[in-house]
Amino acid sequence: MNTMKILALPLLVTLMNSPVFVSVTVSSSRPKVEVHEHTDAVLACEFRTEKDPNPRIEWKKKGKEVTFVYFNHKLTGSYAERAKMEGATLTIHSVTQKDSGEYRCEVTASEDHVNLGEATVTLNVLVPPHVPSCEVPSSVFVGSGLELLCKDKLSVPPATYCWYKDNKALTATEESVYSVDTNKGTLKFNSVSKTDAGMYRCESSNSVGAPKSCVARQLKVIEYPLNMTILIAAVAGFVTLVLFCCICVCVCRRRGRCRKDKKTKSTESYNPPPPPPPIRNIKHYKQTHSFMI
Questions:
Q1: Which of 2, 49, 85, 86 has the most CB atoms around its CB within 10 Å?
Q2: Which of 121, 113, 119, 120 is nearest to 24 (CA)?
Q3: What domains appear along the chain, each with residue ranges and CATH number?
């Protein structure tokens, strides 16, 4: 036991006299920041160095390409007019949805043993609902299918939707003749009836702000008029007649070709006998035939 103590004493003295290397450390007290649109966003960055009293501080934003926010002791681009630096903490004024993303605070201490440290801060800009775009046709025929569309592309988090008919919310049930998708903003009818006519509007909402609604639009449900029915029947009959005539013409042409081919073949197969040679000596011919008689 005494031997172990004697051996450990020199090692302890050596460790106490040797220099301690402490690398630069970078951190953020708020790695995730959520703020409303058009307010200020504070991206906190704290650091500690071993020796370097004036380390180099940089802020970068990640995206398709990495862009500088703070570089060479200056704010860059549009940030020069709407941001400020306090130590290593970055404050962006009046943020918009375009400012959402991942930011990186980098501290380089050239005099330290390990001279580079970094921290990441994610900024999410919340956007209240906007007036949604609504697609409601002015009229539709009885019995036809119908889909009404509603969309708010700007709200963050994404909006949910509710359809209203004559200022009454539409909720799909097992007995209802329509279906509602609150996430996609669609209202579907498999077969429209006269009772589906009315004033339709859509409302978008999320957890950030008050709901917004589009202007209500009138939907008319009309029946096929008698003249329209007659016209459809006449067109269908005409198309049928044209097809029938085309088929008859094709059949007749085919039969005519077959008959022509048969006549051609029969004409080619018939070979008449050669004519008798011409009579050159009529007198001799008469004598010969009279003798035979």
A1: 49
A2: 113
A3: 22-126 (2.60.40.10), 133-222 (2.60.40.10)
